[in-house]
Design brief:
Layout lengths: L3 H14 L3 E2 L23 H5 L8 E9 L20 E10 L4 H15 L7 E6 L3 H11 L6 E4 L1 H4 E2 L6 E12 L20 E8 L3 E3 L5 E3 L4 E7 H9 L11 H11 L7 H18 L9 H19 L11 H8 L4 H5 L1 H35 L4 E2 L1 H9 L5 H10 L3 E2 L1 H15 L14 E2 L6 E2 L6 E4 L1 E7 L2 E6 L1 E2 L13 E4 L4 E10 L2 E9 L7 E5 L1 H25 L5 E6 L4 E6 L6 H16 L4 E7 H5 L14 E7 L3 E4 L14 E10 L2 E8 H22 L6 H36 L2 E3 L2 E7 L5 H15 L3 E9 L2 E8 L9 H12 L2 E4 L3 E5 L4 H8 L1 H12 L1
Parallel strand pairs: 1-2, 4-5, 12-13, 15-19, 32-33
Antiparallel strand pairs: 2-3, 3-11, 4-7, 6-7, 7-8, 7-9, 8-11, 9-10, 14-17, 16-23, 17-18, 18-22, 20-21, 20-23, 21-22, 24-25, 25-30, 26-27, 27-28, 29-30, 31-32, 33-34, 34-36, 35-36
Helix pairs in contact: 3-4, 7-8, 8-9, 9-12, 13-15, 16-17, 22-23
Length: 866
């Protein structure tokens, strides 16, 4: 029996022997702005099929990490319910760019399946597009399949793509495997045509022939070729003779760990354990690429996956974090082929555990929200919970719909599912990945000459060049030049700005972005653009400030590793002309001493005026130098290594200074948390740091003047003032206690009784919120039980009321309900628990009116419940 690892290697080696270049998996975040995640092996090769860029090779093979959640390609709803659907999976593929075509693709697929891994050829059936005579004849005449197992189908089944709605697409031929009668879930109607479980699609051979635009129009593809995709997990199920993908060695070690942790049996909890297993693979793979759970974009998708998995664990009886314990078997399964998964093992575990803890807290808070929501509906004598409120429970508190349905049915209520779906659609639209070119297919390019622009900006900031293409987008223009000194945003560094000038027109460039065509300059056109030579000039000051911050970021990265430890990994960065922001893996916030040490070390290196050297090396040679490379960055065959003496060495395509002295000054202005185990520092350099130092100095001067104290004695003066303030507060508290003791008889004169419950409303005429709470605590200790206490006060001209209800009374009338009642009088709002609540408002006179009516309200409410 061949393992998943062996099957992966057999596939890649087979096509390597067929003169294919093995290309490693691209990240789950694609360069294609139309896609949220990488959904197929061909995504990283789209530009080669379309002809935008010339492919560096004719034949390629890969094993691609894929994530399908949301959109047409999503398998999420089927995960766990079927034997073969997943969110994360590995796609084996072979690709040809204007090289071999249908005949070789079909014959090689057949050879690999039947001769290399020895699948029973009698159990194979295929489908082709009904118009594809060539593919049909190859299967029938050259491979030797009988006509009755070659199914001719339409666009729905045998026309693939394009990924993201535009780009390469074409007819396909699918290869199916017959699992046998025991998998027949459609008795009397089971065939390849009906989607019966018995016939599992193993391999999809796509023949890209067309280039589809965003409006659905198709034209012949410049580089027709081959694009195939075979799910490694399905192949493993067939070869290993398992009942589902989940029983293969790519999944089952995770299921075994779930059984060990929960004490539950897989065969009795199939769907729950399958969902957990699928989702933890997706989560580990994504988080290892620094995609973290959040409330928008890709992070929103991950958070939903994580909470969905935790919900399944909840069904198995667990109400504490354990999902993070499943990271280990995922690392064992995928860590060798995808080293980032192994390298980020600890970090991934921390993130998942923290998210679990947040989810359990949200569930508890959500139950309080639901109770308020339910009460509001019942008070209106209705039974339908509105879609917007349901979505808040689902989105903010993480309540899965199946859990909501159970709770609501138990309470005799109905869900507004249509309203909920509308809110869900809005959220999904928001979750789509943002793009600099959101209307990519809406505006047409005008070409003067086709070609990819060349970047010249490492050596110069200006130059004459020609225009390749342009397009007008509303009030802005995008323009591609043959050569450009403008740096396009990448690697965390913002794009350059400046000006492109013609004979009697110019474009003020505000940004520069990468695209498959090269560098796109985005700006505002003045005059009428002409097809002529143009002069391009980068904003020199901005570029130099960016370079300061980028070089400082390299110093920062190296310094953090020296001060905090080698576990520091860069998790993200943003380098602009105003500041630099650096995210890194570290479990704790930085202490003041650590921040001081980082600043001190960096400024020391600045004063040493260390020369910065930049070398270009073949990537294999560059890796041997020990330079730090960043996961997710797409490096070419040749890479730039930026070295700052022997202090720092990194792969980097950004712009830098000639020596560290040009940075001038370095300051850390903020340190915070981004996600679990991820810290962020924001820094400034050069003149920005100098201005900050001046402002700090002005602040110190001002404090010195206010305190009438020399600058070097300010700290002593402040400590003295604080001590004096503490003494004054103590005296004030003592005085306040005496006043409260003096007022206590008056307070007790206001008390009343109803049904053996002591009711005390009182309005203070001095103090603050704490004074009101202190009086309430005194009364609470006096009466112990069977009491309702309301203490009012006026704070800065506004009414404030604190309410306390004893534990033995709260089931008859609670503090939250009383807060809502009195809030109406003072034109405000409030909240709290059943035992204690507080509220504030803007109408002081309403406080007395509320207290005057209090007894009648309490009596009426209690009688109503009796």
């Amino acid at each position: 029996m061949k393992s998943g690892k062996e099957l992966r290697n057999l596939f890649l080696d087979y096509f390597k022997d067929k003169n294919h270049t093995i290309v490693k998996s691209s990240p789950l975040i694609p360069e294609d702005p139309t896609l949220l995640f990488t959904v197929a092996g061909m995504v990283q090769f789209k530009q080669y099929f379309s002809g935008i860029n010339e492919p560096p090779y004719k034949r390629v093979t890969s094993c691609q990490k894929c994530l399908r959640v949301g959109g047409k390609a999503s398998d999420l709803e089927n995960v766990g319910k079927t034997i073969r659907h997943h969110t994360f999976f590995e796609m084996l593929g072979n690709f040809s760019f204007k090289d071999y075509f249908k005949e070789d693709a079909i014959k090689w697929a057949w050879e690999f399946l039947t001769e290399i891994i020895m699948i029973d050829r009698k159990k194979i059936q295929v489908s082709v597009h009904k118009s594809d005579v060539d593919a049909y004849n190859i299967w029938k005449d050259q491979v030797g399949l009988s006509a009755d197992i070659i199914h001719r189908l339409g666009d729905k089944d045998n026309f693939w793509g394009p990924a993201g709605g535009q780009g390469a697409c074409g007819p396909s031929s699918e290869i199916f495997y017959d699992l046998g009668p025991k998998f027949d879930n459609m008795p009397g109607n089971c065939s390849v045509l009906t989607g019966c479980n018995r016939y599992v699609e193993v391999w999809n051979l796509v023949f890209p022939e067309f280039d589809q635009s965003i409006n659905g129009r198709r034209k012949p593809l410049k580089n027709s070729g081959i694009d195939t995709g075979m799910g490694l997990e399905r192949l493993a199920m067939i070869v290993q003779g398992k009942k589902s993908n989940y029983e293969t060695d790519l999944f089952y070690p995770i299921i075994e760990e779930i059984q060990n942790i929960t004490g539950r049996e897989y065969r009795e909890n199939l769907i729950e354990m399958r969902i957990i297993t699928d989702h933890i693979r997706a989560l580990v793979s994504a988080i290892s690429e620094s995609i973290y759970p959040s409330n928008d974009g890709r992070g929103y998708v991950l958070r939903r996956l994580l909470r969905r998995a935790v919900r399944q664990l909840n069904k198995l009886g667990w109400e504490e974090p354990i999902l993070y314990k499943l990271v280990s078997p995922v690392v064992d399964i995928l860590g060798d082929i995808y080293p980032e998964i192994k390298e980020r093992y600890n970090q991934t575990s921390i993130v998942i555990k923290s998210e679990e803890e947040k989810f359990f807290r949200s569930l508890k808070r959500g139950l309080f929200y639901y109770e308020d929501m339910k009460k509001s509906v019942l008070d209106k004598k209705k039974k339908v919970l509105d879609g917007k409120s349901l979505f808040i429970l689902y989105d903010t508190y993480g309540f899965p719909m199946d859990l909501l349905k159970v709770i609501v049915e138990d309470d005799g209520l109905v869900l507004d599912e249509a309203g909920f779906e509308k809110e869900l659609i809005k959220a999904k639209e928001k979750a789509k990945a943002s793009s600099k070119f959101k209307d990519e297919g809406k505006y047409q390019w005008v070409y003067f000459k086709k070609g990819k622009s060349k970047f010249t900006g490492y050596g110069t900031l200006e130059g004459m060049t020609k225009i390749y293409a342009y397009r007008i987008r509303g009030k802005e223009i995008d323009i591609v030049l043959a050569e450009t000194p403008f740096y396009a945003e990448s690697g965390g560094q913002v794009g350059d700005s400046g000006r492109i000038s013609g004979s009697d027109w110019y474009i003020d460039v505000r940004d520069t972005q990468k695209s498959p065509m090269g560098f796109v300059h985005i700006g505002k056109l003045s005059g009428e653009l002409k097809n002529e030579s143009v002069y391009s000039k980068v904003d020199t000051k901005k570029r130099f400030d960016i370079a300061r911050n980028h070089t400082a970021t390299h110093l920062l990265h190296s310094t953090l590793r020296k001060v905090l430890g080698d576990h520091i990994n860069q998790e993200g960065s943003f380098v602009s002309d105003n500041k630099t922001r650096f995210d890194f893996s570290h479990p704790l916030s930085l202490s003041k001493q650590e921040i001081y040490e980082v600043e001190r070390m960096i400024n020391k290196k600045i004063l040493e005026n260390i020369p910065i050297s930049i070398d270009e090396l073949p990537i294999d040679e560059a890796k041997k130098t020990g330079a730090i490379s960043l996961f997710g960055e797409k490096y070419g065959e040749t890479v730039r290594i930026v070295s700052i003496g022997d202090f720092s060495k990194e792969f980097c395509g950004g712009t830098h200074l000639k020596n560290t002295g040009e940075i001038g000054l370095f300051r850390i202005i903020n340190e915070s948390a981004v996600a679990s185990g991820i810290r962020r520092v924001e820094c400034i350099t050069g003149f920005h740091a100098y201005e900050k130092a001046l402002k700090d100095e002005e602040t110190i001067e001002s404090i010195s003047d206010i305190l009438s104290s020399p600058k070097d004695k300010i700290e002593d003066s402040i400590v003295k003032l604080l001590n004096e303030n503490i003494n004054l507060k103590n005296l004030s508290q003592q005085f306040e206690d005496k006043i409260l003791k003096f007022k206590l008889p008056d307070v007790l004169n206001n008390k009343g009784m109803y049904d053996k419950i002591t009711i005390i409303p009182y309005i203070l005429d001095f103090g603050d919120k704490e004074t009101a709470k202190k009086l309430m605590d005194i009364l609470k200790e006096m009466f112990k039980n069977r009491y309702i206490i309301l203490i009012g006060n006026v704070i800065s001209g506004n009414p404030y009321i604190v309410i306390r209800v004893s534990n033995d009374v709260k089931n008859r009338i609670n503090a939250k309900k009383l807060a809502k009642y009195v809030s109406g009088f003072i034109k405000g709002g409030g909240g709290g628990s059943d035992e204690m609540a507080e509220c504030g408002g803007r109408y002081v006179e309403g406080m007395k009116e509320a207290f005057d009516n209090l007894f009648n309200y309490i009596m009426t409410d209690i009688r109503h419940k009796q």
